[in-house]
Design a protein that fits this description.
2 domains, three-stranded antiparallel beta sheet, Arc Repressor Mutant, subunit A, five-stranded mixed beta sheet, D-Maltodextrin-Binding Protein, domain 2, alpha/beta, 12 strands, about 300 residues
Length: about 300
């Protein structure tokens, strides 16, 4: 087993394709395939399953990738300490529900990451895809919420994917509305207050189950419903149509000055957290991002 082989494995896991990985590594596809087969034979495990839809990381492959990342990080530290070579390009990826605080923490990470080269990814995406991204190592960190309603289903998927949920904060539900909405000056709103207004929610694609909804109270029937796929569209419709959505109340006023969070009078609790893979040790970038998440949340909670 060589460091080069470890780099090959990590690039294939990141690219999700042997062909793309070979292009990124500037080697031929047969050479990469042979190197992977030799490594799997030497270790006596199957790291990747090849299917018609591409590469799938096996459970033992996920465990191996966790160790491989640690070995390469230590090798890079050693190499950089004893040479004048430039630092290697670093990769970091986050998958998240549509939370402004996740973006704010990501912006801070980029602002303070002093490197000539890097490749970062921030995916605001569907709940099931967040779980699948972390399970299959496309992202190190996934950010989502749980409630009494969806907890059992979400926890089942986390167990099956060898994932762990880390709580960031608990929040009482709020509605996000435009600063010009007639409800904006109320101390709180009720579900009856909201009936005349369009309800906005994030669509969940093939997994459009109540349990994967990004908003609590997903089973309630509402007279006016609009589903969107991105946060910018949702906020524009909140303003343009006097619509509303239900979330944590944690919002960056710096990034969203026209949106106001008003408490929703209902007996529910939202628990927001991040998920990681049990078999993978956090990279230094992941640990820094988690710390920035906590600091950003604390700051923005103080604005409510």
């Amino acid at each position: 087993m060589t460091l080069q082989q470890l780099k090959y494995v990590i690039e294939v896991a990141r690219s999700r394709s042997i062909n793309r990985a070979a292009q990124n590594l500037f080697i031929s596809q047969p050479s990469l395939s042979n190197a992977l087969k030799e490594l799997e034979k030497e270790l006596g495990i199957t790291i990747f399953s090849r299917t018609n839809k591409g590469i799938i990381i096996t459970p033992e492959g996920s465990e191996f990738l966790g160790y491989a990342r640690q070995v390469l990080e230590q090798a890079e530290l050693l190499e950089n300490h004893y040479s004048n070579a430039q630092s290697p390009q670093h990769h970091f990826s986050v998958s998240t529900q549509h939370y402004a605080f996740a973006v704010s923490a990501f912006v801070r990470l980029l602002e303070e990451y002093d490197r000539e080269e890097y490749e970062f990814t921030l995916r605001e995406t569907k709940t099931y895809e967040i779980i699948d991204d972390v399970k299959n190592l496309r992202s190190e960190i996934g950010i989502l919420y749980m409630s009494e309603f969806n907890k059992k289903v979400i926890q089942k998927f986390l167990r099956e994917g060898s994932l762990k949920f880390h709580e960031l904060f608990e929040a009482k539900p709020h509605v996000f509305i435009s600063s010009t909405n007639p409800l904006v000056n109320q101390d709180f709103v009720t579900l009856d207050d909201l009936l005349p207004y369009p309800y906005l929610s994030f669509e969940q694609g093939d997994y459009n189950s109540f349990y994967f909804s990004e908003e609590i109270l997903s089973t309630l029937s509402r007279p006016k419903n609009i589903r969107v796929s991105d946060r910018a569209t949702l906020f524009n419709l909140l303003i343009g149509l006097n619509g509303y959505t239900i979330s944590t109340g944690v919002i960056s006023q710096e990034l969203n000055s026209d949106i106001v969070a008003v408490p929703l009078k209902i007996d529910e609790v939202i628990t927001v957290g991040y998920i990681t893979h049990k078999n993978v040790t956090n990279s230094s970038l992941a640990n820094i991002y988690i710390q920035y998440l906590k600091e950003t949340i604390a700051q923005e909670q103080g604005q409510i």
